[in-house]
Sequence to fold (264 residues):
Amino acid sequence: MGEATAGGRPTARYRQIAADLATRIRQGEYEPGEALPAQRDLSAHYGVTLMTLRQALQELSDEGLIVQQAGRGTYVTPVQAAYRVDTLRSFTEDLREQGHDVVTQVLSGAMRRPPAWVVDRFGDGGGERALRLERLRLLNGRPAIHQVSWVRPPYGATIRDRDFVRTSLYAALADAGVAILRASERIVPSLLAAPAAGHLRQPPGSPVFVSERTTVALDGTAVVVDRAVVVGDAMEIRAERAATRLSVRWGAVRSPVAPGDGTP
Fold:
Protein backbone atom coordinates (compact mmCIF):
# COMPACT_ATOMS: atom_id res chain seq x y z
CA MET A 1 0.00 0.00 0.00
CA GLY A 2 1.43 3.35 -1.01
CA GLU A 3 1.70 6.12 1.50
CA ALA A 4 -1.24 8.52 1.23
CA THR A 5 -1.00 12.19 2.04
CA ALA A 6 -3.24 14.66 3.81
CA GLY A 7 -2.62 18.33 3.13
CA GLY A 8 0.80 17.49 1.70
CA ARG A 9 1.82 15.56 4.82
CA PRO A 10 2.27 11.78 4.96
CA THR A 11 -0.66 9.95 6.54
CA ALA A 12 0.28 7.83 9.53
CA ARG A 13 0.71 4.18 8.56
CA TYR A 14 -1.89 2.94 11.05
CA ARG A 15 -4.47 5.30 9.53
CA GLN A 16 -3.78 3.85 6.08
CA ILE A 17 -4.29 0.34 7.44
CA ALA A 18 -7.49 1.38 9.23
CA ALA A 19 -8.81 2.95 6.02
CA ASP A 20 -8.01 -0.18 4.01
CA LEU A 21 -9.67 -2.50 6.52
CA ALA A 22 -12.69 -0.20 6.76
CA THR A 23 -13.10 -0.34 2.98
CA ARG A 24 -12.87 -4.12 2.96
CA ILE A 25 -15.45 -4.37 5.75
CA ARG A 26 -17.87 -1.99 4.03
CA GLN A 27 -17.47 -3.83 0.73
CA GLY A 28 -18.37 -7.12 2.42
CA GLU A 29 -15.00 -8.85 2.28
CA TYR A 30 -15.43 -9.33 6.02
CA GLU A 31 -19.09 -9.87 6.86
CA PRO A 32 -20.90 -8.68 10.01
CA GLY A 33 -20.08 -10.94 12.95
CA GLU A 34 -17.11 -12.50 11.15
CA ALA A 35 -13.71 -12.72 12.85
CA LEU A 36 -10.83 -10.77 11.32
CA PRO A 37 -7.51 -12.58 10.79
CA ALA A 38 -5.28 -12.83 13.87
CA GLN A 39 -3.34 -9.68 14.74
CA ARG A 40 0.01 -11.30 13.93
CA ASP A 41 -1.28 -12.33 10.50
CA LEU A 42 -2.59 -8.83 9.82
CA SER A 43 0.64 -7.17 10.97
CA ALA A 44 2.62 -9.48 8.67
CA HIS A 45 0.27 -8.77 5.77
CA TYR A 46 0.69 -5.02 6.14
CA GLY A 47 4.38 -5.23 7.07
CA VAL A 48 4.04 -3.33 10.35
CA THR A 49 4.61 -3.99 14.03
CA LEU A 50 1.86 -5.26 16.30
CA MET A 51 1.76 -1.85 17.98
CA THR A 52 1.01 -0.12 14.67
CA LEU A 53 -1.60 -2.73 13.77
CA ARG A 54 -3.30 -2.31 17.14
CA GLN A 55 -3.49 1.46 16.60
CA ALA A 56 -5.33 0.76 13.35
CA LEU A 57 -7.73 -1.63 15.06
CA GLN A 58 -8.41 0.96 17.76
CA GLU A 59 -9.39 3.41 15.00
CA LEU A 60 -11.90 0.89 13.65
CA SER A 61 -13.20 0.17 17.13
CA ASP A 62 -13.74 3.88 17.78
CA GLU A 63 -15.72 4.05 14.52
CA GLY A 64 -17.90 1.17 15.64
CA LEU A 65 -16.81 -1.09 12.77
CA ILE A 66 -15.25 -3.83 14.92
CA VAL A 67 -15.48 -5.27 18.40
CA GLN A 68 -12.38 -6.63 20.16
CA GLN A 69 -12.69 -9.43 22.72
CA ALA A 70 -9.78 -10.01 25.06
CA GLY A 71 -8.29 -13.46 24.43
CA ARG A 72 -10.79 -14.28 21.69
CA GLY A 73 -10.11 -12.08 18.70
CA THR A 74 -11.51 -9.19 16.67
CA TYR A 75 -14.93 -9.32 15.03
CA VAL A 76 -16.79 -7.16 12.53
CA THR A 77 -19.65 -5.44 14.30
CA PRO A 78 -22.90 -7.36 13.69
CA VAL A 79 -25.67 -5.62 11.77
CA GLN A 80 -28.67 -4.63 13.92
CA ALA A 81 -27.14 -6.25 17.00
CA ALA A 82 -26.84 -4.87 20.50
CA TYR A 83 -23.07 -5.09 20.43
CA ARG A 84 -22.58 -2.32 22.96
CA VAL A 85 -23.56 -3.42 26.46
CA ASP A 86 -25.21 -0.13 27.32
CA THR A 87 -27.87 -0.72 24.64
CA LEU A 88 -29.16 -3.81 26.46
CA ARG A 89 -31.68 -2.17 28.72
CA SER A 90 -32.77 -3.64 32.05
CA PHE A 91 -35.79 -2.83 34.19
CA THR A 92 -33.45 -0.87 36.48
CA GLU A 93 -32.43 1.41 33.61
CA ASP A 94 -36.06 1.80 32.53
CA LEU A 95 -37.12 2.86 36.03
CA ARG A 96 -34.26 5.33 36.47
CA GLU A 97 -35.08 6.90 33.13
CA GLN A 98 -38.65 7.38 34.38
CA GLY A 99 -37.30 9.34 37.34
CA HIS A 100 -37.58 6.66 40.04
CA ASP A 101 -34.97 6.21 42.75
CA VAL A 102 -33.38 2.78 42.32
CA VAL A 103 -30.75 1.64 44.85
CA THR A 104 -28.72 -1.57 44.55
CA GLN A 105 -27.65 -3.57 47.60
CA VAL A 106 -25.11 -6.37 47.05
CA LEU A 107 -26.08 -9.31 49.26
CA SER A 108 -23.28 -11.65 48.21
CA GLY A 109 -20.70 -12.32 45.54
CA ALA A 110 -18.73 -15.56 45.53
CA MET A 111 -17.33 -18.23 43.22
CA ARG A 112 -19.56 -21.32 43.35
CA ARG A 113 -20.62 -24.35 41.38
CA PRO A 114 -23.72 -23.30 39.41
CA PRO A 115 -26.93 -25.34 39.67
CA ALA A 116 -27.94 -27.67 36.87
CA TRP A 117 -30.38 -25.25 35.21
CA VAL A 118 -27.65 -22.59 34.96
CA VAL A 119 -25.11 -25.10 33.60
CA ASP A 120 -27.68 -26.05 30.96
CA ARG A 121 -27.96 -22.40 29.88
CA PHE A 122 -24.18 -21.93 29.82
CA GLY A 123 -23.57 -25.04 27.73
CA ASP A 124 -20.04 -26.39 27.24
CA GLY A 125 -17.60 -25.32 29.95
CA GLY A 126 -20.33 -23.87 32.15
CA GLY A 127 -20.04 -26.43 34.92
CA GLU A 128 -16.93 -24.91 36.47
CA ARG A 129 -16.99 -22.46 39.36
CA ALA A 130 -18.83 -19.31 38.32
CA LEU A 131 -19.48 -15.98 40.00
CA ARG A 132 -22.79 -15.95 41.87
CA LEU A 133 -23.82 -12.31 42.35
CA GLU A 134 -26.88 -11.69 44.53
CA ARG A 135 -28.42 -8.21 44.60
CA LEU A 136 -31.48 -6.48 46.02
CA ARG A 137 -33.02 -3.52 44.18
CA LEU A 138 -34.89 -0.91 46.18
CA LEU A 139 -37.48 1.09 44.25
CA ASN A 140 -38.23 4.44 45.88
CA GLY A 141 -36.97 2.99 49.16
CA ARG A 142 -38.99 -0.23 48.93
CA PRO A 143 -37.44 -3.68 48.27
CA ALA A 144 -38.82 -4.58 44.85
CA ILE A 145 -36.41 -6.90 43.00
CA HIS A 146 -34.28 -9.81 44.23
CA GLN A 147 -31.76 -10.79 41.55
CA VAL A 148 -29.21 -13.60 41.31
CA SER A 149 -26.76 -13.45 38.40
CA TRP A 150 -24.36 -16.22 37.41
CA VAL A 151 -21.29 -15.17 35.37
CA ARG A 152 -19.53 -18.01 33.57
CA PRO A 153 -15.79 -18.68 33.91
CA PRO A 154 -13.33 -17.15 33.35
CA TYR A 155 -15.19 -13.81 33.39
CA GLY A 156 -16.68 -14.28 36.84
CA ALA A 157 -13.29 -14.45 38.52
CA THR A 158 -12.13 -11.43 36.51
CA ILE A 159 -14.91 -9.11 37.71
CA ARG A 160 -15.74 -10.55 41.14
CA ASP A 161 -14.07 -7.67 43.04
CA ARG A 162 -15.89 -4.86 41.21
CA ASP A 163 -18.17 -2.53 43.18
CA PHE A 164 -21.57 -3.62 41.88
CA VAL A 165 -23.36 -1.01 43.94
CA ARG A 166 -21.99 1.64 41.57
CA THR A 167 -21.08 -0.45 38.53
CA SER A 168 -23.54 -2.42 36.43
CA LEU A 169 -22.77 -6.02 35.58
CA TYR A 170 -22.77 -5.24 31.85
CA ALA A 171 -20.32 -2.36 32.36
CA ALA A 172 -17.98 -4.62 34.35
CA LEU A 173 -18.08 -7.20 31.56
CA ALA A 174 -17.35 -4.54 28.96
CA ASP A 175 -14.31 -3.45 30.96
CA ALA A 176 -13.19 -7.10 30.97
CA GLY A 177 -13.33 -7.17 27.18
CA VAL A 178 -16.63 -9.03 26.80
CA ALA A 179 -18.74 -7.75 23.89
CA ILE A 180 -22.44 -8.50 24.30
CA LEU A 181 -24.45 -9.49 21.24
CA ARG A 182 -27.94 -10.11 22.62
CA ALA A 183 -30.01 -11.26 25.57
CA SER A 184 -33.13 -13.43 25.69
CA GLU A 185 -35.60 -12.94 28.54
CA ARG A 186 -38.58 -14.93 29.77
CA ILE A 187 -41.04 -13.40 32.27
CA VAL A 188 -43.66 -15.49 34.05
CA PRO A 189 -46.01 -14.92 37.01
CA SER A 190 -45.24 -16.93 40.12
CA LEU A 191 -45.61 -17.05 43.89
CA LEU A 192 -42.93 -15.78 46.24
CA ALA A 193 -40.82 -18.38 48.03
CA ALA A 194 -38.11 -18.23 50.68
CA PRO A 195 -35.45 -16.92 50.98
CA ALA A 196 -36.40 -14.15 48.54
CA ALA A 197 -39.48 -13.44 50.67
CA GLY A 198 -37.27 -12.33 53.54
CA HIS A 199 -35.19 -10.03 51.36
CA LEU A 200 -38.25 -8.47 49.76
CA ARG A 201 -40.11 -8.19 53.09
CA GLN A 202 -43.16 -9.92 51.66
CA PRO A 203 -45.06 -12.96 52.96
CA PRO A 204 -44.35 -16.24 51.16
CA GLY A 205 -46.97 -16.92 48.51
CA SER A 206 -47.24 -13.29 47.44
CA PRO A 207 -47.69 -12.76 43.68
CA VAL A 208 -44.44 -11.97 41.85
CA PHE A 209 -42.96 -11.85 38.37
CA VAL A 210 -39.95 -14.06 37.68
CA SER A 211 -37.59 -12.88 34.97
CA GLU A 212 -34.99 -15.26 33.55
CA ARG A 213 -32.44 -13.73 31.20
CA THR A 214 -29.56 -15.31 29.30
CA THR A 215 -26.96 -12.87 27.97
CA VAL A 216 -24.89 -13.98 24.97
CA ALA A 217 -21.49 -12.66 23.86
CA LEU A 218 -20.49 -11.86 20.30
CA ASP A 219 -19.07 -15.36 19.72
CA GLY A 220 -22.36 -16.99 20.75
CA THR A 221 -21.24 -17.96 24.26
CA ALA A 222 -23.76 -17.51 27.08
CA VAL A 223 -21.88 -15.39 29.63
CA VAL A 224 -24.56 -14.41 32.18
CA VAL A 225 -27.65 -16.20 33.44
CA ASP A 226 -29.98 -14.11 35.61
CA ARG A 227 -33.05 -14.87 37.66
CA ALA A 228 -34.89 -11.89 39.12
CA VAL A 229 -37.94 -12.02 41.39
CA VAL A 230 -40.05 -8.86 41.11
CA VAL A 231 -42.72 -7.90 43.66
CA GLY A 232 -46.03 -8.17 41.82
CA ASP A 233 -47.76 -5.08 43.19
CA ALA A 234 -44.70 -2.84 42.77
CA MET A 235 -44.02 -3.29 39.06
CA GLU A 236 -45.86 -3.67 35.79
CA ILE A 237 -44.86 -4.50 32.22
CA ARG A 238 -45.82 -2.05 29.47
CA ALA A 239 -45.78 -2.84 25.76
CA GLU A 240 -46.04 -0.51 22.77
CA ARG A 241 -46.74 -2.12 19.42
CA ALA A 242 -46.15 -0.55 16.03
CA ALA A 243 -46.15 -1.90 12.49
CA THR A 244 -42.40 -2.43 12.49
CA ARG A 245 -41.41 -2.94 16.11
CA LEU A 246 -42.39 -3.97 19.62
CA SER A 247 -41.19 -2.04 22.66
CA VAL A 248 -41.45 -3.60 26.11
CA ARG A 249 -40.40 -1.96 29.37
CA TRP A 250 -40.87 -2.20 33.09
CA GLY A 251 -42.78 0.48 34.97
CA ALA A 252 -43.60 1.20 38.60
CA VAL A 253 -47.17 0.62 39.71
CA ARG A 254 -48.52 3.94 40.94
CA SER A 255 -51.98 2.80 42.04
CA PRO A 256 -52.08 -0.90 42.91
CA VAL A 257 -55.50 -2.45 42.24
CA ALA A 258 -56.85 -4.66 45.03
CA PRO A 259 -58.29 -8.05 44.04
CA GLY A 260 -61.89 -7.65 42.92
CA ASP A 261 -61.58 -3.90 42.33
CA GLY A 262 -60.71 -4.12 38.62
CA THR A 263 -63.27 -3.38 35.94
CA PRO A 264 -63.99 -5.90 33.21
